[in-house]
Specification:
5-stranded mixed sheet, Glutaredoxin, single chain, 10 helices, alpha+beta, 11% strand
Length: 214
């Protein structure tokens, strides 16, 4: 799929939405040394304005997606300062694992286990560590280090990434994204409308127009 902005999409493996396969894969990792996309959904992680804000920006992303990490490093700081820190929008992050799905799912679970206050810092740190994860360092080593830094013990880490209820909830979130028509990551929605250009200019055009509406 071709993206109109500088950040291309990472394709989503639909097999990642199968809870049984995800659970089996995560067990191995731990043991190894039609929805409305603009509407609130169970499990949403958000910042900025409160629910019901005039403008809601939803990002579907994966911690193992290189294009997501690029957006995080190059666009997010200014985007956050302009719209989130000023409470002009409600920013919602939705988890949409890309290959290797077990690593992405583990990263998301760890972020949730770290707690709401540490969720986004953990997500951002995993994205920033992709070079290690894809460069030969065992993913478990990287994820455990990040989990430890967020206050989780190794035992809590292993319990977290093999939690059947958490995996079931993750599976539901993945399926909701697929049902909503998400075709890659990063995938942005402004008030329920997909914005293909994920540059600050592209997003600002849609956001500012929505903010200006009476």
């Amino acid at each position: 799929m071709r993206a109109s902005g500088p950040f291309k999409y990472a394709s989503m493996s639909r097999r990642a939405a199968v809870t049984g396969a995800a659970l089996a894969a995560m067990t191995m990792l731990a043991a190894c040394s039609g929805a409305q996309t603009g509407a609130a959904a169970e499990g949403d992680m958000a910042m900025g304005a409160a629910e019901g804000a005039k403008v809601t920006v939803v990002e579907y992303a994966s911690v193992t997606c290189g294009h997501c990490a690029a957006w995080q490093a190059q666009v997010y700081p200014e985007f956050k300062a302009k719209y989130i820190d000023t409470n002009k929008i409600r920013y919602v992050f939705r988890e949409f694992p890309t290959d290797p799905a077990p690593v992405a799912i583990a990263g998301f679970l760890i972020a949730r286990c770290a707690g709401p206050d540490k969720y986004f810092p953990v997500i951002h740190e995993i994205m920033a560590s992709q070079r290690e994860i894809f460069g030969g360092v065992p993913p478990r080593t990287v994820l455990l280090r990040i989990a430890n830094g967020a206050g989780l013990t190794e035992e809590q880490f292993q319990t977290c990434v093999t939690d059947a209820d958490a995996l079931k909830a993750m599976d539901a979130r993945i399926k909701a994204g697929i049902d909503a028509g998400v075709q890659g990551t990063p995938w942005f929605m402004v008030n329920g409308e997909h914005v293909a250009d994920s540059s600050l200019t592209g997003l600002s055009e849609k956001i500012d127009a929505a903010l200006a509406e009476s």
